[in-house]
Amino acid sequence: MEIGKCKDLMDPSHRFKPESYTADPVGSEYIVIVRSGMDGVIQTLDDIEPFTVFLRPFLDTESMDAKCVLSLQFSACVGSERLGTGATGFLQFSQRGRKERNLPILNSSDLRGRSVWSQPRRIALYLSCSYKNSPASAVESENFHASFDEDLILKNKSQEVAPYLSGRCIYLVGMMGSGKTTVGKILSKELGYSFLDSDKLVEQAVGATSVAQIFKQYGESCFRDNESEELRKLSLRHRLVVATGGGAVIRPINWKYMKQGITVWLDVPLEALAKRIAAVGTDSRPLLHQESGDAYTKALMRLSMLSEERGEAYANADARVSLGHIAVKLGQEDISDLTPTAIAIEALIQIEHFLKGKDDMAIARFS
Ligand SMILES: Nc1ncnc2c1ncn2[C@@H]1O[C@H](COP(=O)(O)OP(=O)(O)OP(=O)(O)O)[C@@H](O)[C@H]1O
Ligand SMILES: O=C(O)C1=C[C@@H](O)[C@@H](O)[C@H](O)C1
């Protein structure tokens, strides 16, 4: 496929043209978004013929791949809910990956002539290229595709996860600077939840203008007591995404409160945290004031000490979002290149795994 054509194909109003992908560069990876429903743009299944491979869902683990592929095949062939009104499926496939893993293939020509749906459905196929093995000149359109794909995937994933949440709050835990505020705001918007920052709630309760002021004027223990009290009050509420303070994990009682909802650990390597914090300064983070040296070294030294002190406290969370793992999945070398949206998608995937795991356990208990 020519790089330039990808952009056109990503235009939601653009009808998928089979001839557009005949020159696929072998080894390139694609994301295919299959959408059906009232706003679909392709009139009949014939429009996607002779479309072939559907493989590897975006951002999911190896073991989930085959399941997702099969679910799409199933839904495409018998018209299950997944392709029902308004449903959206996202799949990534690669020619190389298909051969290597010997994954099943959906051939759209198989769909022709079958009475797949009781009445004509509309399906839109959008094809984009992630350019993993393509020339560097693709960078500009790569960004375009990445954000387009991510926004759609985020929307789709949050719609899938929301029913399992049943209004339970999400508590984001992680070291300072791990992105709890940034990712939390994205999640709250997508899920239709409110966003709250427990540090801000403590500031309001104490009547201080900053956490740094509370530490200076009243000491850390006063801050911690107020933090626990705010978490207790939050534990009685619903439909919130809460960015907790970096140290909220050290008191066991806080876990009791946070576990009323779903706890999610944003696990970011210390070097990346130090880089972020050095970029914005340490003024608002009193625990980082004690070291000397340049901003990055100061932050890294203090973060390393805190991380050792806290040991495995963060690992008590129900779901772990490891930026290192996301980077591997997406083939990114530098985790600084991961967008907050990609991290929010991973958070939803991990929340879904946790909640579905719980469901499975409940089913097993009653069967
Ligand atoms: N994925 C990301 N890539 C690059 N920078 C990011 C990313 N996520 C957050 N940041 C930046 O890192 C800094 C810290 O992010 P944020 O405030 O969301 O973290 P936090 O966990 O809420 O921090 P704290 O616990 O100290 O309040 C901000 O400057 C933010 O813009
Ligand atoms: O990691 C920590 O202990 C802290 C993180 C911040 O969010 C604030 O809650 C406070 O600066 C303490």
Automatic annotation (TrEMBL):
<dbReference type="InterPro" id="IPR000623">
    <property type="entry name" value="Shikimate_kinase/TSH1"/>
</dbReference>
<dbReference type="GO" id="GO:0008652">
    <property type="term" value="P:amino acid biosynthetic process"/>
</dbReference>
<keyword id="KW-0479">Metal-binding</keyword>
<keyword id="KW-0028">Amino-acid biosynthesis</keyword>
<dbReference type="GO" id="GO:0009423">
    <property type="term" value="P:chorismate biosynthetic process"/>
</dbReference>
<dbReference type="InterPro" id="IPR023000">
    <property type="entry name" value="Shikimate_kinase_CS"/>
</dbReference>
<dbReference type="InterPro" id="IPR027417">
    <property type="entry name" value="P-loop_NTPase"/>
</dbReference>
<dbReference type="Pfam" id="PF01202">
    <property type="entry name" value="SKI"/>
</dbReference>
<protein>
    <recommendedName>
        <fullName>shikimate kinase</fullName>
        <ecNumber>2.7.1.71</ecNumber>
    </recommendedName>
</protein>
<keyword id="KW-0460">Magnesium</keyword>
<keyword id="KW-0067">ATP-binding</keyword>
<dbReference type="GO" id="GO:0019632">
    <property type="term" value="P:shikimate metabolic process"/>
</dbReference>
<dbReference type="GO" id="GO:0004765">
    <property type="term" value="F:shikimate kinase activity"/>
</dbReference>
<keyword id="KW-0809">Transit peptide</keyword>
<keyword id="KW-0418">Kinase</keyword>
<comment type="pathway">
    <text>Metabolic intermediate biosynthesis; chorismate biosynthesis; chorismate from D-erythrose 4-phosphate and phosphoenolpyruvate: step 5/7.</text>
</comment>
<keyword id="KW-0934">Plastid</keyword>
<dbReference type="InterPro" id="IPR031322">
    <property type="entry name" value="Shikimate/glucono_kinase"/>
</dbReference>
<dbReference type="GO" id="GO:0005524">
    <property type="term" value="F:ATP binding"/>
</dbReference>
<comment type="similarity">
    <text>Belongs to the shikimate kinase family.</text>
</comment>
<dbReference type="GO" id="GO:0009073">
    <property type="term" value="P:aromatic amino acid family biosynthetic process"/>
</dbReference>
<dbReference type="GO" id="GO:0005829">
    <property type="term" value="C:cytosol"/>
</dbReference>
<keyword id="KW-0150">Chloroplast</keyword>
<keyword id="KW-0808">Transferase</keyword>
<dbReference type="GO" id="GO:0009507">
    <property type="term" value="C:chloroplast"/>
</dbReference>
<comment type="function">
    <text>Catalyzes the specific phosphorylation of the 3-hydroxyl group of shikimic acid using ATP as a cosubstrate.</text>
</comment>
<keyword id="KW-0547">Nucleotide-binding</keyword>
<keyword id="KW-0057">Aromatic amino acid biosynthesis</keyword>
<dbReference type="GO" id="GO:0046872">
    <property type="term" value="F:metal ion binding"/>
</dbReference>
